[in-house]
Structure formats: C-alpha cells, structure tokens
Amino acid sequence: MSKTACASHILLKTQEQASKVAKELDAGKNFAQLAKKFSTCPSSKKGGDLGEFRRGAMVPAFDKAVFAKGSEDKQYLGPIKTKFGFHLIQVLYKS
Questions:
Q1: What total of structural domains would you count in the chain?
Q2: pTM of the prediction?
C-alpha cells in the first residue's frame, strides 16, 4: 500500500469547466500548460504541481482518488469534486 504520492492537478469552479478541460486533455493537450491557463489553485504557477504528499494530507475525495489502485496508470483522474471545486488530477508516482 502506497504511503506517499506525487501529483499535479487542475482546479476548476464548475463541473462544466472541468469537462471542457478534460476534453482538451483527451485531445492530447499538455497537462501543465492547461493547469497554468485554467486552474484556480496557486499551484497553477507550477503547472499544477503539488509535489509529494503523504496519504491523508489532502481532502478525502482527492486522497481516495490519488491512492486508488492503478491511479498512476491513467492519463488523469476526474473530475473529482471536493469543497474546493472540481479537480483533474495527474498522478505522477506513488511509493
């Protein structure tokens, strides 16, 4: 069971916005560039990079998605709804 993960995310206010950005990801657009352009999180300046974090450090829905089995094998996860909005998450690695 993984104890830490490294991920990037794109935080959007509405599910509609998240779906539009997800379509751009599906079309092959760069995750970091879309994060810089659309994310409302301060991490957008770093292309959405949240760095490495421990299990339980993020809000429950985000944490559950990141640490789910096989999450690192997907292009991205989401949209995942939290109290902050809707996240598109790219899991870079888990250890």
A1: 1
A2: 0.97
